[in-house]
Amino acid sequence: MASNIVETIDIAVPVRTAYNQWTQFEEFPQFMQGVESVRQLDDATLHWCAEIGGRRKEWTARITEQIPDKRIAWTSIDGAHNAGVVTFHRLSDDTCRITLQLDYEPEGALETVGDAIGLVSWNTQESLERFKQFIEERGQETGGYRGEIANADDAAGQGAQASQSASFARMQAQAASPTSSTFSRQIGSTDTTMTEQQELATSQQGGTSSSRQQQQGQQGGRTPGGADSPAEEIMSHQNEPASAQRGSTTQAGKTTSRDRQRQ
Questions:
Q1: DSSP 8-state class, residue 34
Q2: Distances (CA, A) of 16 to 7, 31, 139, 189
Q3: HSE on the CB side for 1, CA within 13 Å?
Q4: Label partner for 200 (CA 20 to 30 A): which of 41, 131, 151, 216?
Q5: Could you give the 3-state DSSP secondary structure of residue 229?
Q6: CA distances from 196 to 108, 170, 209 (A)
Q7: pLDDT tens series, the chain, 263 aa
């Protein structure tokens, strides 16, 4: 059964100074009760060795969230099971408050008894008192890490939200302008329609020309068979030279004169 421990202490240093010193994990043995060593494997991974209830324990912990001057959270990934969070609160320019919350799961009957008499709680409070003394005497931190580690759940939520926003933006872009394939199909369809319209226009023009020729032929007196119509013959006579017409008239006049003498 896990034990939950919460301890608070006020320290007479700026919140930035207290936070920076807490990030120097390898110096924890100087003020943390029972901690033998802390080895930092990378920015987010720590290997711990400590004595708890008379038994030596080792575990590897991973920092799950780190916000400068605000909070540091961690959980073990192997070895002795524990997790916790330490928060930093500004009280004034020169004072701050630290709250340490620790979840520890005892192993075996001896540790259960030790936890029952407040052994772990006492170690936690003692560690905070020693940290206060250490940093107040120095007046400044021995170092500091200002990097930030985002909470995994928050990062996943932000990633999902960003993905949804990107998908929505793509959908809007697709709705605003047709895709290349659709656009090509539309162009092809337009070209086909234009070609069909041109062919239809040409056909209509051809039919109109044929109709005009037939009308001209009928007006000119030509039958579809090509024979000269009476109207065409009349037109032909009308177009003959005037001399030929006069000759015909003269001949006709002479005949009439001779007929008169006979009479």
A1: T
A2: 20, 19, 12, 70
A3: 5
A4: 216
A5: coil
A6: 91, 37, 20
A7: 667 899 999 999 999 999 999 999 999 999 998 899 999 999 999 999 998 778 899 999 999 999 999 999 999 999 988 999 999 999 999 999 999 999 988 776 666 766 655 677 778 899 999 999 999 999 999 999 999 999 876 655 555 565 565 665 666 666 665 554 444 444 444 444 555 555 555 555 555 544 455 454 444 444 444 444 444 444 444 444 444 444 444 444 444 444 444 43
